[in-house]
Specification:
Blueprint (H helix, E strand, L loop, with lengths): L2 H6 L21 H15 L6 H13 L13 H12 L4 H8 L3 H4 L4 H8 L1 H14 L8 H17 L2 H15 L6 H21 L3 H15 L1 H13 L1 H21 L4 E7 L2 H10 L11 E7 L2 H14 L1 E9 L12 E6 L5 E8 H9 L14 H7 L1 H12 L3 H12 L3 E5 L5 E5 L4 H8 L1 H5 L1 E6 L2 E3 L11 E5 L9 H4 L3 H14 L1 H18 L4 H4 L2 H10 L5 H10 L4 H28 L13 E3 L7 E3 L11 E5 L5 E5 L5 H4 L6 E2 L1 E3 L7 E10 L4 H11 L4 E9 L2 E10 L2 H12 L4 E7 L2
Parallel strand pairs: 2-5, 12-14
Antiparallel strand pairs: 1-2, 3-4, 4-5, 6-7, 8-9, 8-10, 11-16, 13-14, 13-15, 17-19, 17-20, 18-19
Helix pairs in contact: 2-4, 3-5, 4-5, 4-10, 5-8, 5-10, 7-8, 8-10, 9-19, 9-20, 10-11, 10-12, 11-12, 12-13, 19-20, 25-28, 25-29, 27-29
């Protein structure tokens, strides 16, 4: 690596604790920020054409004109700051453009088709991917929602990993300005950041984003703990800075004497990493060895090991505190030598040794694939780095429940790791605490299912042996060997547990069906129910869809092998049973309300009842059908026909009794008006309600009822008025949508 390349390597080193660029003191003019962005791009891509970025900025500026953030600053500042973060990662032009436009589809009237026309399909797909991720709502206590959101997130990442890079930049800037949100929103978003986005950044190897997300989330989730830790660390700041300077000077002297060219500097550890060590290791702040570290960056891998030898001659290493991540990289491709040493006056400290290229990978991770540089990573190399992503998506095939899938993702892919070798030297990363069984199932399901015994470092070990870094693990299989249910208590990874259950699911199906049916029957009896009355096909159809099963026997089998619980199934069956009872009660109520009769095929309500000219007719108040709507007739007991919209929610229950349905249609000759209610959601502004009312007045339509409510900067309006039919209503709703700041208009049931 030549000197110019070395200069371009951002060392990102602090002499004190993390100096958060997190909280801006003052707002900056958007043009100044944009000029900064262009300057950054030209530094790492001096010959690049920025015309597309310029065009994207102008479009975003116009699209977001008049919009403000919670802070009161112009909204355009947010996408520009997102692009600055992306430029710090030296990302390609398409990613920068998509970052500038990432909120345009979500928050303005611009469409994906328009973006594709202006900037091409690649940018449009990136923007669309980020928009869909933005719409995901993380709900900490709703497993099904989490599972679906994680699946969608991983699918988006698999399609183009740059989608999540833009989302990470978006989340980072939002966290930097989180002080303008309510305390509830601060905690909600920070929990989401710590649970999802920071681990993803870590998995992708983007440490400069990961550590800041961690610290920012920590700041709002545990403000008292955070502030206390900052204050305690600040007391010793001057002393630590002097110590770091002394170590750096001493190391620099000896490294140069050894003829090694190197960049040497010191840094303090980030707050959250210190806090996490205090919690996981149950230690006080004073017991944490590596509050700060010295980093040595050299040209070659050989220089790394030469420098390590020099360092160990100067300082005494602490036993058990050396890690060789060069020989055994982390799953996110991080490489470095870590050694903890005893410094002057007995003060422990850490030294990290790596090459310039390793440092770049540590800072930028997967983002380095799109950097403007020679020798850019090829697709095969990128695919190998994202192998874990494919494994994560495959977990859904083995998980029996949504909860299991969520736990698998969290525990198997967002946890600490040990690095274990196969006899041929292949590195396998496993969750800390994993056993030879986890190792076997990680290799292949068939290997795991036929484990006879395991060897670690050449010696036979128990199957519950806890694997350690650098262990060489060998699995001995036998054709007749099969899993034991006790293995479920031994394995650590959710992946292994899912594959073991999958084996029992297939191997003992008949036995599991009998056992599961008996278990469900007993559970039903305890709630005063008979299993027979709860197992109508219409009752368990939703269960089959939820658990991706074919028939009721699959459900019994899953209960039998422990894939799902009787509680999960019984709750749903009883819910469906009660829903049918409610439908019957509803039908009875509707019958009692049927009043009006007609004497011919055309009722005075404008509805033709086919084959029943003298049948009484009334419109159902639950859905208020209009001429032009698709309608369904429901024969009540003694009170004629109730007319419902075909999409009426109540028809789901009434359809259970198909014999009472009758064909109806609108009469073409009838002239009448019908009440309808619509719901409007809009951004708050002066004159909004007046414009809505004026639109109806211009059409000679009287407002029967109006109810408006304002929450923060959002106005919701409920309007009731008469129309001649669905066509007129559609025309009115289209007009409403054209009113400035109106975001959504939809018809609601009465």
């Amino acid at each position: 690596m030549d000197n110019s390349e070395k200069k371009n390597v951002e060392l990102n080193i602090d002499n004190g604790e993390l100096k958060t660029s997190m909280i801006p003191e003052d707002f900056t003019d958007p043009q100044i920020l944009y000029d900064k962005l262009i300057s950054m791009i030209k530094k790492y891509h001096p010959s690049g054409d920025i015309s597309q970025i310029e065009k994207a900025y102008k479009i975003a500026y116009k699209a977001h004109d008049g919009q403000l953030r919670k802070s009161g600053e112009p909204y355009i500042i947010h996408p520009v700051c997102v692009c600055i973060i992306l430029a710090e990662l030296e990302l390609d032009k398409e990613t920068i453009v998509a970052g500038m436009l990432h909120d345009v589809v979500e928050d303005t009237v611009m469409t994906s088709e328009e973006i594709a026309a202006e900037f091409g399909d690649e940018v449009a797909l990136l923007v669309d991917g980020v928009t869909k991720l933005t719409q995901l709502n993380y709900v900490a206590d709703k497993v099904e929602v989490q599972a679906e959101n994680l699946r969608k997130m991983f699918l988006a990442m698999a399609k183009d990993i740059r989608v999540i890079l833009i989302k990470l930049a978006d989340r980072l800037h939002n966290q930097r300005t989180m002080q303008y949100q309510t305390p509830e929103k601060q905690k909600e978003k920070s929990r989401e950041t710590l649970d999802i986005y920071a681990p993803i950044a870590d998995r992708l190897g983007i440490s400069k984003v990961k550590v800041e997300l961690d610290d920012l989330a920590f700041r709002y989730l545990e403000p008292e703990v955070y502030n206390n830790l900052v204050a305690r660390l600040d007391k010793g700041r001057v002393r630590r800075e002097e110590f770091i300077k002394q170590i750096v000077a001493e190391v620099d002297k000896h490294i140069k004497a050894a003829g090694i060219e190197a960049t040497i500097d010191g840094r303090a550890k980030h707050y959250f990493s210190i806090y996490k060590k205090m919690i996981t290791q149950n230690k006080k702040l004073e017991q944490i060895y590596d509050l700060f570290a010295v980093r040595i960056i050299v040209d070659t891998e050989r220089d790394c090991y030469t420098a390590l030898g020099v360092i160990h001659e100067i300082y005494k290493p602490i036993p058990g505190h050396f890690k060789d991540y060069i020989a055994m990289p982390k799953p996110n491709n991080y490489q470095s030598l870590h050694t903890t040493l005893i410094g002057p006056q007995g003060q422990p400290f850490e030294i990290q040794i790596r090459t310039y290229e390793m440092h770049r990978t540590s800072e930028y991770g997967i983002a380095a694939h799109w950097m403007y540089k020679e020798g850019r990573a090829n697709q095969d190399e990128l695919d190998s780095k994202l192998a874990w992503l494919r494994e994560a998506l495959e977990l859904e095939n083995y998980a029996d429940t949504t909860k299991e899938f969520v736990e698998s993702i969290r525990k198997d892919f967002f946890s600490d790791y040990v690095y274990v070798l196969t006899p041929r030297g292949q590195i396998i990363d496993l969750v800390t605490g994993s056993t030879p069984l986890d190792f076997a199932y990680r290799i292949h399901s068939n290997v795991g299912n036929h484990v006879q015994h395991a060897k670690v470092n050449g010696a036979i070990v128990r199957l519950d042996y806890k694997l350690k870094n650098n262990d060489v693990c060998e699995i001995v299989t036998a054709p007749n060997a099969t899993p034991s249910r006790d293995w479920l208590k031994i394995v650590k990874t959710q992946q292994a547990k899912a594959k073991i259950r999958q084996w029992f699911k297939k191997a003992n199906r008949e036995e599991n069906i009998i056992r599961g049916k008996e278990m469900l029957s007993e559970a039903a009896k305890r709630q005063g129910r008979q299993l027979g009355e709860l197992t109508k096909k219409s009752y368990y159809d939703d269960l089959l869809k939820r658990f991706n099963m074919n028939d009721i026997e699959d459900i019994y089998a899953a209960i039998g092998y422990g894939g799902i619980t009787t509680g999960q199934v019984l709750h749903k069956l009883i819910e469906q049973y009660r829903k049918e009872e409610k439908a019957n009660q509803l039908a009875a109520k509707l019958e009692q309300k049927e009043e009006q009769r007609v004497q011919n095929a055309v009722s005075h309500h404008g509805v033709v009842v086919k084959g029943e000219p003298n049948m009484a007719v009334r419109f159902a108040h639950c859905c208020s059908p209009l001429p032009g709507d698709k309608i369904v007739g429901y024969i009540t007991r003694g009170r004629g026909v109730s007319i419902h919209r075909a999409d009426c929610p109540n028809m789901t229950d009434l359809m259970l009794d198909k014999e009472r349905l009758i064909d109806v249609e609108w009469a073409s000759t009838e002239k009448a008006s019908y009440p309808v209610t619509i719901h409007i959601v809009a951004g708050e502004r002066p004159g909004l309600l007046m414009e809505i009312s004026q639109l109806l007045m211009n059409l000679n339509i009287s407002i029967l009822a109006m109810n408006a409510k304002t929450t923060e900067d959002i106005v919701t309006v409920q309007l009731t008025f008469n129309v001649s039919g669905a066509a007129q209503l559609d025309s009115i709703m289209k007009g409403m949508r054209k009113i400035r700041t109106v975001n959504d208009v939809y018809r609601i049931n009465a």
